[in-house]
Write a structure and sequence with these properties.
Elements lengths: L5 H27 L7 H30 L8 H23 L4 H10 L1 H18 L3 H7 L1 H6 L3 H14 L6 H24 L1
Helix pairs in contact: 1-2, 1-3, 2-3, 2-9, 3-5, 4-5, 5-8, 8-9
Bound molecules: protoporphyrin IX containing FE.
Protoporphyrin IX containing FE (HEM) binds next to α2, α3, α5 and α8.
Length: about 200
């Protein structure tokens, strides 16, 4: 696949940026028109969670896609997709904290004791924080080799995100199984690369 010219890359990035905003636009529209269904909070949590994991897997698939399709420009989209993953995860966290915990830490403690998979999701988000905060050019330059080392955190974060989803399955295992297979394939592809980095 051809490498994009700077102009094409700029346009393609703008398109990807807008596409990634569409789920948010839909969620806001559905909330404003009161069409989130019978359980709006559940719908908000599930929609933001679904987009978080979809974007997470897509971000992790960029590197193998670059190798398979010899698409030199692919890596130029990874940072934006990674930041959108963090954005939708943070929105998911904000909705849970507001509508389930009601910003009440006693209530949060009870919920976490009853549903430990929420804590696993929170751990995934915590691991994503340093990645999000160091995703700017200045941090990349300042951290040099340590930037790549720090980004190894993405693997436990992805596994925790998957565990968070798989743990709460009550009826259909389809999504959890699909993400599980995709994640195993992605990790398998990365294994050798990771060994070189360490
Ligand atoms: C990378 C991080 C995360 C991802 C990818 C993610 C993804 C998801 C997904 C896809 C669902 C819907 C699962 C289903 O019904 O099939 C979900 C539900 C949920 N998530 Fe997360 N999540 C993440 C982090 C968090 C965090 C940080 C919290 C809060 C501390 C959280 C709390 C919840 C809760 C309360 C539910 C609803 C569970 C229920 O309906 O009983 N998640 N998450």
């Amino acid at each position: 696949m051809a490498t994009l010219t700077p102009k094409q890359l700029y346009a393609a990035k703008a398109v990807v940026f807008i596409i990634c905003l569409l789920p948010l636009a839909y969620i806001i529209y559905a909330a404003l028109t009161q069409s989130l269904g019978t359980d709006p909070v559940k719908s908000l949590i599930h929609q933001t969670g679904d987009w978080a994991i979809r974007l997470f897997v897509l971000t992790m698939a960029i590197s193998p896609m670059r190798a398979w399709f010899a698409w030199g420009s692919a890596l130029r989209f990874r940072r934006m997709l990674g930041l959108y993953t963090w954005f939708y995860t943070s929105l998911h966290l904000l909705i849970v904290t507001t509508y389930i915990f009601a910003w009440d830490w006693q209530l949060a403690k009870i919920e976490l004791a009853e549903r430990p998979y929420i804590f696993v999701g929170f751990a995934a988000w915590v691991l994503m924080v340093p990645l999000g905060l160091t995703s700017n050019n200045r941090a990349v330059r300042a951290l040099r080799k340590n930037w790549a080392r720090l980004h190894i955190l993405v693997y436990p974060a992805l596994l925790l995100a998957w565990l968070h989803i798989a743990w709460q399955v009550r009826s259909s295992y389809f999504d959890a199984a699909l993400y599980g297979v995709l994640i195993i394939c992605l990790l398998f592809q990365r294994f050798q690369k990771l060994q070189k980095r360490l």
